[in-house]
Structure formats: C-alpha cells, structure tokens
Amino acid sequence: MSVVEGQRLWTPSGSFAARSNISAYMGWLRRERGLDHTDYDALWRWSVDDLEGFWSSLWAYFDVIADGSMQRLLQRPSMERARWFEGVRVNYAEHLLRYEARAQPGETAIHHLTESQPLAQLSWQQLGAQVRLVATQFRALGLQPGDRVVSYLPNVPETTVAMLATLAIGAVWSAAAPEFGTRTVIERFAQIEPTLMLACDGYRFGGKDYDRRDEVAQIVAGLPTLQHLVWLPTLQHGDGAPPWRGARHWRELLDGDAVPREAFRYERVDGDHPLWIMFSSGTTGLPKAIVHNHTGQLIEHLKLMSFHFNLRPGSVMFFYSTTGWTMYNLLVAALLTGAAIVQYDGSPMYPSVDRLWSLAEATRTTNFGASPTFVQIMEKAGLEPGRQFDLSALEAVLVAGAPCTPETFQWFYDCVRADLWVTSQSGGTEVGSAFVGASPTLPVYAGEIQARCLGMAIQAWSDDGQPLIDAVGELVCTQPFPSAPLRFWNDPDGQRYHDAYYAVYPDVWRHGDFIKINARGGCYIYGRSDSTLNRYGVRIGTAEIYRAVEQVEAVADSLVVCCELDGGGFFMPLFVRLKPGQVLDGATVEQINQRLKRDCSPRHVPDRIYAVDQVPYTLTGKKMEVPVRKILMGWPLAQAASRDAMMNPTAIDYFVEFAAAQADYRRPTRPV
C-alpha cells in the first residue's frame, strides 16, 4: 500500500451527507433559531464562540427529559470550576431506555456473543424489563442514590443491565474487567468504598477458561464496605450455589413480577450528582478516580453519538472492548440514539483471525470499531474482509485507542470497502467522550482525524501558550465543556484534579496529548506529551517513529523512549520486535536508521536499537512508553508499572533487566 499522510481517500456523496444527523441539526437551527451555517467549520466555530447558544440548542433539539427549570446554563467563575445546567435534574439511564417505547416488538437492542455462548439477541422490551427488575431489587436491598456499585464482569448483556439499573436509581457505577488482577481491582474499588459488587466466576479467552473465584474472594476481602455480592456464573460453575459466602445469584435479581414502564421511577439528579467513576490506566501510581455526572455525560453523548458517529434507529454499533475501558461506556451510549449495539466477550482472533468480521456480517453491523493494533494484526495476517464477508450494511469504521497511521486508513479502503467512512477520534477516559472526531459531511484524509468536535474549543499550543497551525503542540481546550470531570474521588481540595489538567496553562485544560491542526481543521494526534521524545530541546512524537520503523520489512512492532541524563544529555533507545526468522544485524539496523532519516529526520534516529521478544501494552492496547522510560530512569517496577494493567505482563521484565544490566546505556553511541 502506498499512501501519503493527508491524501484524500474518500468524499461523502451528496445523499450521504444530506441524510446525516448533523445536516438535520443544521436544518433545525435554520428553522428554529435563524442560524444558517454554511458548512461544518462554520458550525464548529459558532459552537465554541457561543457556548450557551450551542448547548441550549442541544437541550431543546434532543428534548432532554428533566425535572425543574433551568436557572442558569453555565456558571463560570473559572474554567476549572464551571458548572452546567443549574436547576434541572435528569437521569442518564432514562434516556438510554427512552427508545423502548417506540421500538417494534422484538426489535433488537443488544446482539451478544461470547466464546462459550452462541450469538443471541436481547430486544428493547427485554432490556427495559430486566433493567427495571434489577433496579427494583437494588432498591429493595437498600441501595440509595450515591451508593457505589462496582462490577467485575465481562462484556455481556448482564453487565449492561446492571449498569443501567444502577444509574436508574441514582447509584454510582464503576467497572473493572475480569482479566484485571486482584491488586489492580482493589486499588481502584477501595478508593470509592462500594456497597454492592457484581462478580463473575471467570471468563473464556482464546479457547481457555480463566477461573476468577479466588481473585473475587481476595477482592471482597479487600473491600470492607461491601454489603452485597451478586454472582454471575459465566463458566462451568453456573448450576451450583454461589462460590462465595452470602452471595446472591444473578437470576435472583430477575425474579419477581414485571415492573411496567409507567410504574417505574427513575431517580433524576442534579448536575453535581455522580454518574460513574472511571479510572486512569493505572500504569503508574494509584489510579485517578475520575467522577462524571449524569447531565454532562448525557448531553455530550447525545451530541457525539448523533452527530459524530451518525447513529440512529436501524444502526448497529460494534466496538471491540473490555468493560474496564471507556469505549465500553461509549458503546452502551449508542443506545441513546435507538441504535442496536453488539457486545462480544472473547479473543478477537479466536477461533480464527476473522472472528470480528464474521460477527459484523452476522449482526449487519453499520458502524465497526477497533484499535489500530487490531488493524495491524489483520494486515499482517493478509485478511481481506470485504472479499470474504458480506459487509454491505457497513457504513462507517471507527479506529480508536491509539494514534492512527495513514496506512491504517488505507487498509480499510483496500481490504474492506472502497466506499466507506473511515474515522478516528481522540479524547478518552477523562472526558468520557472525544475532543476531536468525525463528521459525515467531510472528506477523509489519510491519517487525519476529520475535525474538532462540536462544542470543544480545541487548539494546539506552544510551550508559551501560543496557538499553532500546521505545527505540533500541546492539545488544549480553551472553553468549558459539560463532560469535564466533576472531580476526582477523595480529592477534597481539588489539588490532584488541578495538577492533572490545569497546572500548565492557567484556566486552560491541558490534555497531555500532542496534536497538529491544519488550516482546514483536520487533526493529527502524535501520542502522549508525557511520552514525547525530547532531544536537546526538539520534541518528537513517538507515533512518527513507529510509522516509519514499522514499514521496515523485518520489524513487527516497536517502542521508543527518551531518557534525560545528568549534565543535560539524552539517551533514546529503540526496541523492536522482529518478524519470525529476522535478526537485528548491522544491515537491519542501517535499514531502520535510513528509513527514519528519509521519512522523518536525522533527529529521529535512535541512539541504539535493541531486539525484544515483546512490546509491553496496557489492557486497552496502548504501548507502555512512560513506564518503560521510568524503569530505564531507575524507578522500581512497583512504582513504574502495574502488571495487572498489562495485556502481556511478562513483557516488562526485559526492561527491568535491561535497566539493571546495561551499565553503559547512559553513554549514548550510535549503532553501526
């Protein structure tokens, strides 16, 4: 594949753009508000220049269900302390299930598949009925608004039912995936003092069963505030008694008479009431407990799912994720639009490498989501899904979780479909949404995120706070947005929250990513700024190096870091995982260096290159650049990285041994 960054790959047809949700919204603005925006860029500029006009229009356009009357849409003593939608009370789950009243009998809300259970469906009526039953049972157990409910469950419909039931009564949801280790889970959940926990007995991945009963017992022992434990059997232990003393079986929550829609009361809450608590990746230090609220996440997700994902009744959304990643929450958020979702629990490569594409065919998926790492696997396997499966329902692809290369985009056009809206986004756990994302009215350019999301005043800034165009800078948001975290849990004076986002630029959100925004508004993410390679004052994004290095035929994967040395020096090693049968000899080293010089610059050439068996990844598929750098700088492993938060825990061992044994690595010399 030959593709150049910024090369136009796709242009929406007139009919595709005209029938998009964002075009419908622009028409509504003309009719109802007298605002005639000629294109997406004009709409975006209005959305960040007139915050109250934009966000109040969404409140009306989406007909938000609320108690009370809005006294003030935005109070802004500062960006950091901004408060939204004062005087009204909403419930997020109520809006997620609103489509149930309009759905056809038997219309699918959730397609679900695991490695141990065949593909099945849950209708809107079944989903709503189960949520109301479980929510009623939670209330009967004494759960109150504000109580924390935690989940150690896989990506199955029961998890979604439990999540919606929790939110429906005003309790607070938090989740960890069952592949997380005991320490990682306790570090998260102990901070928020949960009242009820839902846990599985294990999970199946890659054809192998993983029994988690001992881990659950240890987690329960580490959470002294727990009053209730609910057991969801997912392995062979499903017919017997719960394996933990005092636990209730999941099916007990579904016992009892049906609760009609009109008889159920959603707990509508104000803007300071927590919705869910999400955690930072946990690769370093104690994970940050990030608190989001009902109102901000609701209005943001209505916007994101409708305008930037272009979902509607009849759409089917799939994104490969575990329950411990923010993409699971965003997958569930697709229900806000009346779209169906696809939940899959298992390996994306089992029993064969085309597993997810066969699932997309079977469910008539319209919006398919995965990470760039997944695409690399598909490409290396020589898979051409468009020729092997009926993907005629597919309209859009969302690639998220890490920066995308132009080649990632091109692969979809070459191997899936030529007429396809290939999108990327960036945002994450902190905002529960995206800062930059897609628009169905704009062309797709190779490697480029199409636009800044509506209502998000995103800029690239230099170190001295000057906006940049066509140059790499810090990703900042200069105006308040409703989905900003309410706070961090156990951060009473707000200092940790301030230090995380507002300590660098006064009253401006600094996200921690490097971004380039071009003159037409297209965006490029160049990785975390805290993993940036800073050599003698020149900043280099790791994504630039990976794109070049991984085009070398011998290289399967790579990781690069830069360590500051005493006396102002730098050491930038490159670690490469080679393809089978390849060796890191002088010729391969020279090929890598020449590729970096040609595609990037001489400054991109590493000080040394080392072969590794594995590149360490987090559970969400991100390369662990910062932990590796800290280990090489002398940090103890326990302070630099959490094995339980890793996809491949043994991969970090090489770097621990490297830091201890390579006594001369602080004396940089070029490889020959």
Automatic annotation (TrEMBL):
<dbReference type="GO" id="GO:0005524">
    <property type="term" value="F:ATP binding"/>
</dbReference>
<dbReference type="InterPro" id="IPR042099">
    <property type="entry name" value="ANL_N_sf"/>
</dbReference>
<dbReference type="InterPro" id="IPR045851">
    <property type="entry name" value="AMP-bd_C_sf"/>
</dbReference>
<keyword id="KW-0436">Ligase</keyword>
<feature type="domain" description="AMP-dependent synthetase/ligase">
    <location>
        <begin position="99"/>
        <end position="480"/>
    </location>
</feature>
<dbReference type="InterPro" id="IPR000873">
    <property type="entry name" value="AMP-dep_synth/lig_dom"/>
</dbReference>
<dbReference type="InterPro" id="IPR020845">
    <property type="entry name" value="AMP-binding_CS"/>
</dbReference>
<dbReference type="Pfam" id="PF00501">
    <property type="entry name" value="AMP-binding"/>
</dbReference>
<dbReference type="GO" id="GO:0006629">
    <property type="term" value="P:lipid metabolic process"/>
</dbReference>
<dbReference type="GO" id="GO:0030729">
    <property type="term" value="F:acetoacetate-CoA ligase activity"/>
</dbReference>
<protein>
    <submittedName>
        <fullName>Acetoacetyl-CoA synthetase</fullName>
    </submittedName>
</protein>
<dbReference type="Pfam" id="PF16177">
    <property type="entry name" value="ACAS_N"/>
</dbReference>
<feature type="domain" description="Acetyl-coenzyme A synthetase N-terminal">
    <location>
        <begin position="40"/>
        <end position="95"/>
    </location>
</feature>
<dbReference type="InterPro" id="IPR032387">
    <property type="entry name" value="ACAS_N"/>
</dbReference>
<keyword id="KW-0067">ATP-binding</keyword>
<keyword id="KW-0547">Nucleotide-binding</keyword>
<dbReference type="InterPro" id="IPR005914">
    <property type="entry name" value="Acac_CoA_synth"/>
</dbReference>
<comment type="similarity">
    <text>Belongs to the ATP-dependent AMP-binding enzyme family.</text>
</comment>
